[in-house]
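Researcher: Sequence recovery benchmark, item below. Answer with residues only.
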């Protein structure tokens, strides 16, 4: 499948049972809700999520299950976040063998690589696989920035095709477009800059709260796409308090609690994470309940 780097692609949460095993039944419920809403791709194993807690075989099982579930309707991307080049190559090759259509890839984990090390890492992995790659550029959370000069070198690899732009600098979308045009596709990676990034020329949105609110997220994208900016803005303004749950150290717990309220998830997390409790939980519940109470009526965004 040729990955089209555009539209809404949820970085889906991993579903667990109360016995800390993969909950493929509830995972299927959520994926089907995403498909029904019209998302344009699925991203597995988000790094700020629970990917680091998964066993290797669990990651592969999730990949194979998702690929079989979507039936080539949309691409399935697997996140690569490893500590060594050797591990990253192995992960990329396993993802390809398991049927993934593309990769989302971070710089090396833990070790803060220099510019040359970072570029060599990406290029070496890219040359080991035929899968298209989206570079995840998030210096805020991972302390390594992939600069435009570095992308100039990385784009010598034909299969490095997109960036998940998470620098939090909205003007970086324009810088990328000015420098690379359509050669480097831009997927915004910050929920609270979703519509702003699209308006500045981003091609799509790797989203978080879409896991609980798929239709609302896709509606914003589709309305923006056809120039119905005011209608998109009205939904986005309603959505913002919920989107802010994603820019939080406990984003996984926040999103999973929201999924409970919308009927497409559970609160089960893998230790050391624990479900929200006390005042923190009550605060998030108030945001979710307020959002549901004031939920906008969506237009027929699939037929604009």
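Model:
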């Amino acid at each position: 499948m040729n990955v089209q780097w555009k539209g809404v692609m949820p970085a889906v949460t991993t579903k667990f049972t109360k016995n800390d095993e993969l909950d493929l039944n509830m995972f299927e419920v959520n994926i089907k809700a995403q498909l029904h809403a019209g998302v344009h791709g699925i991203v597995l194993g988000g790094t700020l999520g629970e990917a680091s807690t998964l066993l290797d075989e669990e990651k592969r099982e999730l990949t194979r299950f998702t690929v079989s579930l979507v039936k080539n309707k949309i691409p399935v991307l697997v996140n690569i976040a490893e500590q060594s080049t050797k591990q990253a190559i192995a992960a990329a090759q396993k993802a390809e063998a398991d049927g993934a259509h593309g990769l989302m890839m971070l710089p090396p984990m833990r070790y803060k690589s220099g510019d040359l090390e970072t570029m060599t890492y990406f290029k070496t992995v890219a040359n080991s696989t035929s899968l298209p790659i989206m570079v995840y550029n998030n210096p805020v959370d991972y302390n390594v920035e992939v600069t435009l000069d570095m992308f100039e070198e990385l784009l010598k690899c034909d299969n490095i095709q997109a960036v998940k732009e998470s620098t939090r600098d909205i003007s970086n979308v324009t810088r990328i477009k000015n420098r690379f045009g359509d050669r480097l596709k831009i997927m915004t990676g910050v929920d609270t800059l979703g519509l702003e990034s699209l308006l500045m020329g981003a091609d799509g949105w790797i989203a978080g709260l879409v896991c609980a609110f798929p239709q609302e997220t896709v509606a914003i994208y589709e309305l923006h796409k056809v120039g119905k900016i005011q209608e998109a803005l009205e939904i986005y303004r309603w959505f913002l308090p919920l989107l802010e749950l994603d820019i939080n150290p406990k984003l996984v717990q926040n999103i999973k609690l929201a999924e409970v309220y919308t009927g497409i998830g559970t609160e089960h997390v893998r230790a050391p994470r624990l479900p929200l409790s006390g005042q923190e939980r009550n605060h998030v519940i108030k945001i979710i309940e307020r959002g549901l109470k004031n939920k906008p009526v969506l237009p027929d965004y699939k037929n604009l």
